[in-house]
Amino acid sequence: MELPEMKYPLSREQLLDLYYFMRLTRELDEQLVRLFRQNKVVGGLYSSIGQEATSVGTAYTLEKRDWMAPMIRNVGGLLVKGFRPRDILMQYMARSGSPTGGKDGTSHFGDLQERHVVSPISMLGDLIPVMTGVAMGGRYLGQKLVTMTWIGDGGTSTGAFHEGMNLAAAQRAPFVCVVENNQWAYSTPVARQVPLHDLAERARAYGIASYVVDGNDVVAVYQTTKEAVERARRGEGPVLVESKTMRMKGHAQHDAAVYVPPEMFDYWKARDPIARYETWLTERKVWDKKTKAEIERRIERELKQELEFAENSPLPEPEVAERGVYCEGCHTIEAHWERPIEQVQPPRASVQAAWTVSNFGGPNGASAAPEAAGKTKPATVSARAANGGTKRPARGAARPKRRR
Ligand SMILES: Cc1ncc(C[n+]2csc(CCOP(=O)(O)OP(=O)(O)O)c2C)c(N)n1
Ligand SMILES: [Mg+2]
After folding, report:
1. Coil, strand, or helix at residue 311?
2. Separation of 150 CA from ligand 1 center, angstroms?
3. Catalytic-labelled residue, pool 259, 297, 298, 339
4. Higher-confidence position of 142 and 304
């Protein structure tokens, strides 16, 4: 075995693991397409073909204590974090044994107890402030954890993305945001919605670190993302990783992607992440034909069993639809990671207040707002408090003009 020097070394077992997960993701994807054509998938089906190295390589950098929130093209990440193919199969087929009991399709499920997976949020961008909050919570509890989520090129143009990244940066949250630049947001090419060559450049607006990585090279994806995760864990603040890859299918099964120039598919097909990694493993003598065949047989065997299990799971009973909508004493709402109060208060808590606000809203009604350059002074909290909570503006504040 002649492995190149790596900053974050991977053992032979780990290298084969990466192949196993990427190949499993693809085979599962193709199995789901067959089920879709048999009319067994309820709802839409989103493929991550072509993006396996991005999803698997990034998720593989996380430790057990870390948290992730997947999006639609992160089935690979779900498998790495410990979900089984049957969970994904049953979820898409809306079977009662699925993680949501047949109530939701696609990969809209999580596991807050064991695997530390926050369920996807369909509104693109919204997972960024949520995972920033998880990161801040983890830090507050002194857990040294890192959180991660993924967002598409299109998703980086939402308001929630920018608000969330700004919050993460201002709070120096231990959070890694992976931008899956797969060249398309539905039928819109990146160049028509972002005036930037590299989406990693977006990080400059928040003063945070960023990386660009070849998203079809799983070893590079792992190395780069690992560095980002370690930086975040050290307390250096959030990191943006742009992974350049390609969505090799339409947005979902209903979309034939006729708007994608055929030569673009040809270009990326020649850079298929799985085929490239097979060559990488062979050239460095990490495996031989026998090992490859063993992994293939293992995947075939496992998927057959998982499919059988999923197909034997019934559809949910109709009355299930009205259950679990509201909490009716099914559980008490309290954190499972609750700690004694003295552990989460200074000096044991890991976060010290980094700033103070002096002279803001003093009890005597004095305004803390600096004198504005103009003639008016904004109303302040103190002015309202001094007036018994009425909304009378402070002296000198601009008053709305009455309409005649
Ligand atoms: C805020 C918001 N706007 C629009 C949508 C509808 N929508 C879902 S996926 C999608 C395209 C997303 O493209 P991109 O972010 O590049 O991710 P990709 O599908 O390429 O992985 C759109 C417009 C949404 N879910 N949320
Ligand atoms: Mg996209």
Report:
1. helix
2. 12
3. 259
4. 304
User: Which of 4-8, 117-121, 387-391 is the least confident region?
Assistant: 387-391
CA of 181 to the centre of ligand 2 (A): 6
Residue 4's pLDDT is 82
Distance of CA 109 to the CA centre of its chain: 13
Query: Does pLDDT of 173 surpass 90?
Result: yes
Write out the DSSP string of 147-200.
EEEEEETGGGGSHHHHHHHHHHHHHT-SEEEEEEE-SEETTEEGGGT-S-S-GG
C-alpha dihedral (212, 216, 219, 224), degrees to nearest 10 = 10
Pairwise CA distance, residues 52 & 271, whole Å:
12
Share above pLDDT 70 across residues of the chain, in percent, rounded to a whole number: 83
Q: Where do the domains of the chain lie?
A: 12-322, 356-398
Using CA atoms, how far apart are residues 279 and 257, in angstroms rounded to an integer?
A: 29
Note the CATH architecture for domain 12-322: 3-Layer(aba) Sandwich (3.40)
Rounded-to-integer distance, Cα 80 and Cα 57, Å: 9
Helix, strand, or coil here: 309? Answer: helix
Distance between CA atoms of residues 315 and 41, nearest Å: 12
274 with 24: CB under 8 angstroms?
A: no
Nearest CA to ligand 1 atom 11: 185
Q: What is the pLDDT of residues 71-105, one digit of tens each?
A: 999 999 999 999 999 999 999 999 999 999 999 88
Q: How far is the CA of 134 from the centre of ligand 2 (A)?
A: 25
Does residue 347 have a cis peptide bond before it, meaning omega lies within 30 degrees of 0?
yes
Stretch 29-50: mean pLDDT, rounded? 96
> Rounded distance, CA 37 to CA 47, Å?
14
222-265 pLDDT, tens per residue?
999 999 999 999 999 999 999 999 999 999 999 999 999 999 99
Whole-angstrom Cα distance, residue 208 to residue 218? 24
**75-113 as b/e, with b when 16 or more CB fall inside 10 Å?**
bbbbbbbebebbbbbbbbbbbebbbbbbbbbbbbbbbee
